[in-house]
Amino acid sequence: MIGGRETVAESLTRELIHRFYSGDARWLAGHFAPDFTGIGAQSEQYRISVDDILRNTGVMPDLVFVRERYEQVAQSGDMTVVMGQYAAYVAPGQEMAFADIQRFTVIWRDLQNRDLQNRDLQNNDVSRAKLVHWHLSNPLRASVKGERFPRRTALGISRAMSLMTEQKRYQRELQIQDVTGATHRLLLFDLQYVESAGHNTVLHMTDGAKYVVHRGLGAFLADTGLEDDRCGFVRVHRGYAVNALYVRSVSDCVTMVNGDTLPVPQRKVTVVRETIAAARIDDDMA
């Protein structure tokens, strides 16, 4: 970090991690050096090849990153070293429940303009940057031998898994009446975010359905008990409240798992990010 902002090396490493889990093998393939060497997290992965990484990219689950740290720790000649860690869980709606904390070290060669700020990344020549080394530090311990993505929870982010379980309970079910007079019973887990629409509130569901209720957003949140921190809903704007489980990232906007982007006041970005993190990460990870 330089002046509290990410260096280009740190930003490029963040993109590397996200591209890996999003299955972007083409982007990854273009960033490996010919003499790349890697070390995997599992005991049998003392050495991993580019082909190993690209194969794994195709079967990675869609992850929601709840805590990330990227730190440029060394620079010598044309080599730049970045270390970090991330905590993540499988995005809701997939056929598994999984969370873990991973540490890593990467080494880049020929990274130009590496001390520029994150916002300049796209405007600077990083096309020559090649990944020389990638080391994953802690193993993903499988609960069943040979299971690639075990149904287990990382200790530090068990709150996210607990929140999923809580939202799926029928005791947390909402009964609403939409503006047509129809009544619906909804699980909190199926509610992605709510939006103010004048004197109404629009409920955006994970399956793409929308329900409109004749109640202002503030009154709706109060009436349904979603103001309670234990429900996992966070007011990110006067016109929006989101289910923390479905937030992919918070920057100049809130990006949801389904790709929807919601506004967030610039002055509240840090508070919103910390509040969403607190809903998903145990206290000792904050």
Give an overview of the whole structure:
By secondary structure, this protein is an alpha+beta fold. It folds into two domains: 8-152, Nuclear Transport Factor 2, Chain: A (Roll), CATH 3.10.450.50; 161-285, OB fold (Dihydrolipoamide Acetyltransferase, E2P), CATH 2.40.50.1020. Helices cover 20% and strands 34% of the residues. It contains six helices and 15 strands. It has helices at residues 8-22, 25-29, 50-57, 158-167, 217-224, 269-280, and strands at residues 32-39, 63-76, 79-90, 99-109, 130-136, 174-177, 183-186, 191-197, 200-205, 210-213, 233-237, 240-243, 247-250, 253-256, 261-263. Strands 1-5-4-3-2 form a five-stranded mixed beta sheet. A hairpin with an 8-residue loop joins strand 3 and strand 4 (99-109). It is elongated and about 65 Å long. The chain starts with 7 loop residues before the first helix and ends in a 6-residue tail after the last helix. The model is unreliable at 113-124 and 139-153 (pLDDT under 50). It comes from Bifidobacterium myosotis. This is LytTR family transcriptional regulator. Residues 181-277 form the HTH LytTR-type domain. InterPro entries: LytTR_DNA-bd_dom, NTF2-like_dom_sf. GO terms for molecular function: DNA binding.
